[in-house]
Amino acid sequence: MQIPAGTIGAYVLLRNEQQQATPLYVGRSDTCLRRRLTRHPLRGRATHFVAAPTLNRYQAFAIESAWYHRYLSSGTSITNQIHPASPARTGRRCPFCCETEIERALRRALPSFSSP
Questions:
Q1: How far is CA 4 from CA 33, 61, 86, 105, in A?
Q2: Which residue in 28, 99, 17 sits closest to 67, CA to CA?
Q3: Is 116 inside a domain boundary?
Q4: The pLDDT value given to residue 115
């Protein structure tokens, strides 16, 4: 209830494991962070959260992407199955990716594929 209704932003759901907060999931809301957190499907597994309110959807996407890449590159096991999606109708690319979604899909499907 500390987040005002209608706040846009990114978040990390955490779980308490062995007296340490471990990241569980990285996400964002482009409309209402408060509603997203109170209705999140992993709410029962998470014990804490960190939220970063932002001024717009792209900032929320950039923070979500930064956290996503940080946790994956550090070997932290988060439950996100896919890369954060660009905000609807923006066409913005992840500022932390060097390859396109198509290149990434090709690399997974064809291990011998290398991007230009």
A1: 8, 19, 24, 38
A2: 28
A3: no
A4: 45
Question: Is residue 45 situated within a structural domain?
Answer: yes
Question: Quick one: tokens of 75?
Answer: 């070997």
HEC readout, 32-82: CHHHHHHCCCCCCCCCEEEEEEECCHHHHHHHHHHHHHHHHHCCCCCCCCC
Q: State phi, psi for 71 to the nearest 5 degrees.
A: -70, -40
> Helix, strand or coil for residue 23?
strand
* Residue 112 confidence (pLDDT) above 80: no
For residue 3, being part of any structural domain is answered with no
What does the alpha-carbon distance between residue 59 and residue 89 come to, in Å, rounded to a whole number? 15
pLDDT in tens, 74-98: 888 899 989 999 999 888 888 888 7
Taking residues 25-52, what's their average pLDDT? 95
